[in-house]
Specification:
By secondary structure, the protein is of the alpha+beta class. The chain is built from 17 helices and 21 strands.
């Protein structure tokens, strides 16, 4: 039964089984109170939250069953007669005593359920006027956490098929998920596996939308505590940080170490080989357990240890399920198998040993990747005393004035990774460079006093812009197509905005199709949509075929004859008719 249905039944004196009405009355006058005013409990106004206030008597009014529906089982209150008076009414039979009425301000319970069968104790909980037991309170608390997780998971994903499918039956899905977690019978659903080709070909494994709620529940609980353990120069999957922050910090470390490029300075770039595919899940689970122990020793606002809270127990149960789950189990492939065979063996979870590898595409994978390398970060900062150090996922840098000292770090770092984490460095991508010749990091080539976009990144941008310019004009009449093109263009500008590249922006977007419905701002920081009067898109003519209108689909492209207007005959059919008539 939904919450609204339960409230509706309680308002009309028919609470469902297991839910009781709470009546608060004064021990002197017997008046039913809400705060300090009398109310009509026929409409069941919520009682005051402070049940321990002196002078108030808190009693539970139970619904009488049909078997015990005797005179003592009835309970009464007052119902409105007019603006000035109220009648006394029997909840069970809805009979109104017309000979007895009072002023509405003095409405009182004529007959409470004689000496209520139970008092509000420490094992009962108040929620919107209901008194419930421990299991019901836990269930509602978990549903509230899952609803918050649903809002987080739905952000920027509202148009996906999985989100729409889940949202059509959202309340039942969340309730079933909460019940399965409480009963410890939660099972993860099969994941979806597909490939992305830019910037390099990667295997992405995305969990079902229902499981993403669990991921966000874990993230919302663990991330605030993990943030206190991570170093400042860990940039991935952290609020207020990212690629732009990482590039700024690299420039800060170079300027600090070289005294603003007045002293020799070198950069050691470290890359971990096949990071996500090589994470040992059992070692990761041990690290998560240590983090949970640290969290459990802290106290909440009420002074209770967190390890005694319900949320802690739920997260502790779910973390084990998520970390040790094999994502390739019953995985659904969305791309042809021949494309997966083109992946290098070190880039696919199908080739990883049992119990090794995290899926790229889950929120918890990004969270746990930071936790897994936190010990390595502490080792580089505390043991090796690398002052100028930073890391983004598996790419790290060390800045120093002595190149020999920097090269001595490589075997020590590789030894730590092999011994403690089961990882190793990719020596082909680990290199030492002079900062005066430039350092490439996160798609940006950093030189003294200036930044450039890498040529490889520029080539991908040109390819994407050419693909955007091939969009037919009749598709631009659809506002969804225009917004999609605008978001793609602004994402490219977001990368270019990190550099001084005004002339590059002008050359890239010269004669672009975007100028038909948008314009660039003063410094080409972003594109903005025109108003309806300023749009340069040609309106559809009256003689246009339906296939030229914005409602465009693949079926329309493959079967154009289904979308021809009445009386329209293609030229090919006319030629065939003429040929048949001549023959």
């Amino acid at each position: 039964m939904s919450r609204a249905a339960a409230e509706r039944q309680c308002r009309f004196g028919n609470p469902p089984a297991g839910i009781h009405l709470l009546v608060i009355s004064s021990p002197k006058s017997g008046r039913v109170l809400r705060g300090d005013r009398g109310i009509n409990i026929n409409y069941h106004m919520p009682p005051p939250r402070r049940l321990s206030a002196s002078g108030y008597d808190c009693r539970i009014v139970r619904r009488a069953s049909s078997a015990s529906n005797t005179a003592n089982g009835y309970y009464w209150s007052a119902t409105a007669r007019d603006a000035s008076y109220v009648h006394n009414m029997n909840f069970n039979t809805s009979n109104v005593n017309g000979n007895n009425w009072n002023q509405p301000g003095n409405g009182f319970s004529v007959r409470l359920f004689a000496e209520a069968s139970a008092l509000v104790t420490t094992t009962s909980f108040l929620w919107k006027g209901f008194v419930m037991d421990q299991k019901q309170a836990d269930y509602l608390l978990l549903v509230r956490y899952l609803q918050r997780a649903y809002r987080d998971a739905r952000r920027n994903k509202a148009g996906t098929n999985n989100c729409i499918r889940f949202g059509m039956n959202r309340e039942d899905e969340i309730c079933d998920l909460a019940q399965s977690i409480l009963e410890h019978r939660y099972v993860m659903r099969p994941s979806i596996c597909f490939l992305v080709t830019a910037p390099v070909m990667r295997e992405v494994i995305a969990a079902d939308f229902r499981d993403r709620l669990v991921h966000h529940l874990i993230f919302n609980f663990l991330n605030p505590h993990l943030e206190k353990l991570l170093i400042h120069d860990c940039y991935s999957c952290r609020k207020g940080k990212g690629t732009g922050f990482g590039i700024d910090r690299l420039e800060h470390h170079i300027r600090s170490c070289s005294r603003n490029y007045t002293q020799p300075c070198y950069a050691l770039q470290i890359d971990i080989s096949s990071y996500f595919m090589s994470i040992d899940r059992w070692k990761l689970y041990g690290m998560v357990q240590e983090l949970m122990v640290r969290i459990g020793a802290q106290r909440d606002r009420k002074g209770r240890f967190l390890r005694y809270t319900k949320l802690f127990a739920w997260v502790e149960y779910l973390v084990k399920m998520v970390v040790l789950y094999d994502p390739m189990q019953n995985c659904e492939y969305r791309d042809p198998l021949r494309l997966f065979l083109q992946l290098p063996p070190s880039k696919s979870l199908r080739n990883s040993p049992e119990g090794v590898g995290l899926p790229i595409g889950n929120l918890t994978s990004q969270l746990f990747s930071n936790l897994y390398l936190n010990g390595f970060d502490q080792y580089m900062k505390r043991e090796l005393k690398v002052k100028h150090y930073g890391r983004y996922v598996d790419d790290a840098f060390c800045i120093g004035n002595n190149p020999e000292w920097l090269l001595s770090i490589v075997p020590k770092a590789d030894g730590y990774l092999r011994e403690h984490l089961g990882l190793h460095l990719n020596l082909k991508k680990t290199k030492l460079t002079d900062v005066c010749y430039g350092v490439s990091f996160l798609g940006i080539h950093l030189k003294p006093y200036r930044r450039y976009v890498k040529r490889k990144t520029l080539r991908r941008m040109k390819t994407e812009i050419v693909r955007m310019n091939r969009t037919p004009e009749y598709k631009l009449r659809d506002h969804l197509v225009r917004e999609e093109l605008l978001s793609k263009a602004n994402s490219l500008l977001g990368i270019l905005n990190q550099t001084r590249s005004y002339n590059i922006k002008r050359r890239l977007f010269a004669n672009s199709i975007l100028y038909k419905f948008a314009y660039g701002d003063k410094y080409m920081q972003k594109f903005v949509l025109y108003g309806e009067k300023e749009s340069r898109i040609t309106p559809p003519a009256e003689t246009d075929r339906p296939s030229d209108f914005p409602l465009y689909s693949v079926h329309q492209e493959l079967f154009p004859q289904d979308y021809m207007p009445l009386g329209y005959i293609p030229q090919a059919i006319i030629s065939q008719v003429d040929y048949d008539s001549r023959s």
